[in-house]
Amino acid sequence: MSDAYDELAAGIAAARERFLAMGEAVAGTVREQILNSWRRSRFSNVDVDRIEPPYRADIDLDNRLVRSACHCARRPTSPPNRSVNG
Question: How many domains does the chain fold into?
Answer without folding.
Answer: 1
